[in-house]
Amino acid sequence: MSKLDDLISTLCPDGVEWKKIGDIADITRGVVMSKDYINEHLGEYPVYSSQTINNGEIGKIDTYNFEGEYLTWTTDGAYAGAVFYRNGKFSVTNVCGLINIKDKEHISTKYIKYILSINTQSHVTRGMGNAKLMSNVMASIQIPVPPLEVQNEIVSILDKFTSLETELETELETELEARRKQYEYYRDSLLTFGDEVEWKTLGEIAKIKNGSDYKHLAEGSIPVYGSGGIMTYVDTYSYNKPSVLIPRKGSLKNLFYVETPFWNVDTIFSTDINTNIICPKFLFYYLQTQHLEELNMAGGVPSLTQTILNKVKVPLPSQIKQQQIISILDRFESLCNDITSGLPAEIEARHKQYEYYRDKLLTFTQKN
Questions:
Q1: What is the pLDDT of residues 284-313, one digit of tens each?
Q2: Which H helix or E strand runs over 231?
Q3: Contact, 99 vs 112, CB < 8 A?
């Protein structure tokens, strides 16, 4: 029998009490805090908002609204219901709820964090396209509250599990980053040319074409590309030859090489490439080295125009040389993609393993 089993059989053999969050904690909300305010009051104390990246932190300011051990949760948006453990001096915005456990001598704040992590999503409302978990709903959530010794043992187990999971994720991402840097080094080396080859402008070897709206089209199997990638699928195409897609605004680093028919919207250019001069995939690899996102900042917003792109210089080694470079980079990219596809799968497997054991640890028989 494990220590946890022993504690449960000794301290709560007949089950545990279930309590509402509103009965064991004070619940409040954060305040509106603009980016301008944060930039004007830079300091050392974190400000937490609705996002989940970077532990929810959106900046640091020179004052704080809360000090001590709390939980926060995202009240609105895509991450509604996400719960975080906080301990220290911090502030939260108006899209964060705050939970302050009343009796910390008998209820572990971190235990409540773990138990809520398996309860909140079923209470999120998603009507009208905006997910929400408001304070009154959070207050109504019922959770099992075993004796403090049981709570602490569960926290100890889950803290260790979380630490191991984080270490593995960091190792995998470090390996991926090393592969990417190695790939970029060899790609840039292979695609560095001088006067030994002919050079032409992009406008001389390809016609850059605007995209157009797709909403009048029927649903189908043809991908629709925007600056962030595939948006949806329709029943017809705007171009059906190998092409390099170049974002016009937004995520300017996201170049796409497409060989099959596609439709592109007005946030991304397609290219009608003269294949007698250059291989489309060679052009794709070369443009990846040119940092196109740095070519123009229109009013502070990254954007590209046909005029700017038409002036980009492109080397033209022989087609045999182009194919050799494509072959090398295809193999190298395949190695990166193998680990790229393996990384999310491995992390997802670890998450599922963690969630399985977490849910088993946090499953209790209700008393009476």
A1: 999 999 888 777 655 555 678 888 899 999
A2: strand 229-234
A3: yes
